């Protein structure tokens, strides 16, 4: 089992490897024993597949479980309120402990609930997707608003992240693809050699489990280092938003859940690479196409439909667009981009994608 410390304001450890839940009865016993209630908020699909596995590790404690809608649908006011109602009906208090069991969507909403229930109770992230190597670390929590992705949320660090990689074996191919988007993002903003390795992958099915684990560990290390330097996103944390200005606009425009976050980020990164005039753009578009990312969708989406979302992006101010771009791989920076430049780059992107698909 690997572990990585995140030295945030409230430091914690990310444990990665099969059997990570065994730590409940060891390192985390004092935390669990101190809780007057333990509540697991679980993605309903994940619960069907893996809840019994989790509960077997929690046999010693009286655990209550609430299942929430699978995936992005959970990041809603309704689910947020349902979680609070459940905690209240179970007589939870400030001494209760919450666990988020699922992918990034479950982690985001459960983290938000933890940060707001009685103004904050401890929580543990139990991520079950590849993408969640990103979402479970760093303390961003959120639900969506019709007008913009993740618009309602907090910065609130978990007490621990227990990432049992065995659970990833049941991920459908589309979710593997989606999760690898954030791995590629971490490579783009940090390390050219690693990026080359990733761009050589033509089918994620060919990745051995050990190879995948190594990519996840590298991704978590990149994320943790940035979060340690700038937990509340005053500066360098913005680099973790590489590809996200367009991505969040696509998710908002298409309707949350109609494109996965990772698919949207892959498109968003192609746009950011084009704006960066990055030499890898063509290779990257080909790689994305061969790995089945739905690049074609932008052909039917006008720039004007996306612009209002991009103007509300959290890196923007007064409608001025700020993008994370790359001087070169591993050298991100934030740049103001005029509307006209953003528009013509988008049109050019569609042409480049059409050439490849
Ligand atoms: N907080 C952050 O820093 C951060 C970072 C990146 C992404 N996010 C957010 O994370 C969300 C995306 O997360 P995600 O990609 O993990 O998707 P997700 O949580 O929406 O889950 C995707 C699907 O995979 C299923 N699933 C989950 N684990 C499974 C397993 N082990 N086996 C089989 N099926 C499984 C779920 O039921 C769901 O249908 C987005 O809302 C995004 O905004 C947050
Ligand atoms: O941790 C961060 O910071 C990130 O930006 C990671 C992103 O992958 C993630 O999608 C995040 O939720 C986006 O945050 P937002 O502030 O743009 O909503
Ligand atoms: Zn993301």
UniProtKB/TrEMBL annotation:
It is an enzyme of class 4 (lyase). One of its GO terms (molecular function) is 3-dehydroquinate synthase activity. Residues 66-177 form the 3-dehydroquinate synthase N-terminal domain. Zn(2+) binds at residues 182, 244, 261. Pathway: Metabolic intermediate biosynthesis; chorismate biosynthesis; chorismate from D-erythrose 4-phosphate and phosphoenolpyruvate: step 2/7. NAD(+) binds at residues 70-75, 104-108, 128-129, 140, 149. Catalyzes the conversion of 3-deoxy-D-arabino-heptulosonate 7-phosphate (DAHP) to dehydroquinate (DHQ). Belongs to the sugar phosphate cyclases superfamily. Dehydroquinate synthase family. This is 3-dehydroquinate synthase.
């Amino acid at each position: 089992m690997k572990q990585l410390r995140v030295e945030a304001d409230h430091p914690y450890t990310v444990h990665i490897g099969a059997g990570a839940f065994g730590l409940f009865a060891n390192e985390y016993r004092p935390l669990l024993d101190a809780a007057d209630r333990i509540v697991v908020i679980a993605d309903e699909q994940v619960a069907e597949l893996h809840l019994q596995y989790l509960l077997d590790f929690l046999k010693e404690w009286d655990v209550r479980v609430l299942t929430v809608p699978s995936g992005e649908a959970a990041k809603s006011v309704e689910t947020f309120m349902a979680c609070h109602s459940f905690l209240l009906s179970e007589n939870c208090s400030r001494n209760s402990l919450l666990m988020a069991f699922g992918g990034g969507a479950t982690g985001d909403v459960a983290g938000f609930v933890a940060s707001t229930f009685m103004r904050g109770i401890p929580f543990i992230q139990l991520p079950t997707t590849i993408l969640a190597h990103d979402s479970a670390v760093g303390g961003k929590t959120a639900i969506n608003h019709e007008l913009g992705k993740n618009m309602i949320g907090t910065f609130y660090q978990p007490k621990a992240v227990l990432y049992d990689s065995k659970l990833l074996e049941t991920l459908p191919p589309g979710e593997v693809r989606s999760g690898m988007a954030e791995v590629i993002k971490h490579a783009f903003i940090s390390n050219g050699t690693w990026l080359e390795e990733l761009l050589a992958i033509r089918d994620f099915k060919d990745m051995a489990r050990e190879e995948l684990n190594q990519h996840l560990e590298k991704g978590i290390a990149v994320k943790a280092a940035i979060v340690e330097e700038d937990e509340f996103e005053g500066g360098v944390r913005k680099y973790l938003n590489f590809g996200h200005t367009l991505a969040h606009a696509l998710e908002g425009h298409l309707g949350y859940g109609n494109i996965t976050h990772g698919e949207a980020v892959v498109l968003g990164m192609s746009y950011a690479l084009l704006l960066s005039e990055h030499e890898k753009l063509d290779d990257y578009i080909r790689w994305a196409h061969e790995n089945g990312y739905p690049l074609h969708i932008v052909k039917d989406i006008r720039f004007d439909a996306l612009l209002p979302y991009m103007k509300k992006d959290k890196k923007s101010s007064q409608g001025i667009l700020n993008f994370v771009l790359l001087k070169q791989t591993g050298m991100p920076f934030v740049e103001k981009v005029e509307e006209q430049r953003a528009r013509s780059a988008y049109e050019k992107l569609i042409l480049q994608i059409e050439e490849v698909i």
